[in-house]
Queue: 2 jobs
Job 1
Amino acid sequence: MIIERLELRVLRLPLVRFFETSFGRVHDRTFMLVRADGGGLSGWAECVAADTPYYSAETVETAWHVTVGFLAPLVVGVAFPHPREIFPALRRVRGHHMAKAAIEMAAWDLFARQQQAPLSAVLGGVRARVAAGVSIGIQDSLDHLVDRVGEEIAAGYRRIKIKVKPGWDLAAAEAVRHRFGSVPLMVDANAAYRLADANHLAGFDAFDLLMIEQPLDEDDISDHAALQRRLATPVCLDESICSVSRGRDAIDAGACRIINIKPGRVGGHGESIRLHDLCASRGIPVWHGGMLESGIGRAHNLHLSSLPNFTLPGDVAASRRYYEPDLIDPPIDVAPDGTIEVPAGAGIGVHVVEERVERATLRRLELRAS
Ligand code: OSB
Ligand code: MG
């Protein structure tokens, strides 16, 4: 395959509802969108870097800078036998996995469309529907939180995740447990704690949680291992798993019992498959994370979630929870049984509404082989 032309855009979409994590509240999402053209077809993907360096060091601006200056020249006009060859070809550029993933994933979509196959089939997926969970942000009060959780359970979601931070943690988990009994529940701290908080975090053990996600800093693999030894609740890592080899180190160290896979964080679909396979071989269940994606990134996530070791419900929810309208038509929806269909058409299998893309665009650039 050859990417003859790459189109980059920066888009801004308002969120249906604000989303708050331990690092702050957001009301909209600014992100880079990539379109890769080749052989008369187009592949699409979005870069999950945000406009702030709070979840990860990468931002929209670093992704734009690195893509335009360093990544695009390594891929545009270059023949690749398969999209899995792209990530290794970008090795000269250190880090910047979210920027690399956006190009790589657009290439996978283009490749699958050229094969006239759904992306899931090309990735090695085995499921036509995937189990959906939701991630519920920090709310203004525990009453609001309980109301929000109730709405999502009524919509059919199979697992509830609530965001926590110091000052909004044990009482939030307790309120949800108390009101909704045995609902599958987990918490995500987005690195808001220190190992010195281990006794406090052990308080979560009283609530029979599926897992606690990323309690400590991204770099703290050995601290996570020490924390896991003190908790009955399984630790799941998100931010820390910034590459396949970091995933292997975390498993070897006993830093987690579960891993959240986000293709943007590890460098795309090829690296996600390698991480998925590694986890399967080590008996570590995985689930698919979310980054408030538009329908384009969301569709990619559904295809990847159809791989066999995604045995836990992911943060792959209906588009209407995030953007209305979304960039795609029809939107992605959840069935009353809490599953979402993996789109069956070629590539990511969703229709991108180009007028909506155009309307949300803040900046645009076209790159061709020189
Ligand atoms: O930590 O999983 C996270 C959103 C933005 C950045 C980080 C995270 C999240 C979510 C939301 O939890 C998942 C989603 O609904 O897309
Ligand atoms: Mg997380």
Job 2
Amino acid sequence: MDRLLTLAEADAHTASLRPLGTETVALAAALGRTLAAPISADRPFPPYRRAMMDGIAFAADTLPATGPVLFAGLHAAGDPPPGALPPGQAWEIMTGAVVPDDCDTVVPYEDLDSGRPAASFKKGQFIHDAGSDADAGAMLVAAGNSIGPVEIAIAASVGLTEAEVFRRAKVAILSTGDEAVPPDATPQPWEIRRSNGPMLEAMLTRRGSPIVFHDHAPDDPAICGRQLDEALASCDVLLICGGISKGKKDFIRGLLEERLGKPAFHGVEQRPGKPLAFWSGPPAVFALPGNPVSVLATFTRHVLPALSRLEGREFSPPRVRMNEVPTPLPKFSWLLTVATGPDGTLLARPPGNSGDFISVAGSCGIVEVPPGRPADTFDFHPFP
Ligand code: AMP
Ligand code: MG
């Protein structure tokens, strides 16, 4: 390890990552991606004066003072505008229909009283004016926004069948360690089953990352080196877990230095996850310490924002309150696992130690507790 960096110093290095590029995909496939070109209105929104209720439409000033209103006919959604309305009469009109130019008011059926509008209606009511939401040509969604269900709806409504989005980062995972056997193997008493690879794969799958390589390396530099070569050739981002600390079998830094030169950093003033190392690449490489809670915390705090940046979006963590204010560590930032609390605040779910991933079950993310001085609000990094 080198001189330990503060979190801010480490962030300055990962901030050098740039978006990978853009591509055009079918609209349905754009869900969860970042928009690379703005979506603009091809027509005013709404495109015509839209009836907002099922009921009647009329010109308020021509309505007779008493008696039931005479209906000129039915005007439904999807009908072209009707001819002129005879003075004093009303159309029966359906939600989504064009309100004819000679009408200025819609009264819903439920507000009719003995065949005429109850006295309480207001002239102009229940008409959604053409262009009142957006003018033709207006930008509806800016580039850089995440595409969720609402953005899909907006894109569809302006006639897009495809969207220009930022490329996804292709991710490779290489877990390490002679002691870690596959989940379907029976471990010897001195062995454990691998859990870091499955956890990373689950995190990446949740956020929609394509996983182009996933393997496990023994603590053997020759074999591990060949696996690293294969992984590096296939990905935009390589995630390694384990083998990056000071142990006599921690070969990862040396193997990566032979291939990529010195890391941008190796060692961060954070707990858990001090031995985190980063090469800016390409491909970008994060070597995460092997302890499962360290993998969880460093992936969430460092790798997720880096993936967002490569995919065209800057992640800014929301500020949150904790159910109980945590006591900061004197010098290190604390990447504290948390669960959602009953009242919208977050509950600390600290592990016994960074190998104890059982006690962080049910957690939903980490909060960053800065060193030294107590704080009221904290940066929150949710799991995907
Ligand atoms: P290392 O960073 O390689 O020294 O590993 C630190 C700790 O994390 C050791 O106790 C390892 O057994 C554990 N560990 C490493 N890789 C894995 C893995 N894939 N799944 C679960 N635990 C692991
Ligand atoms: Mg190891």
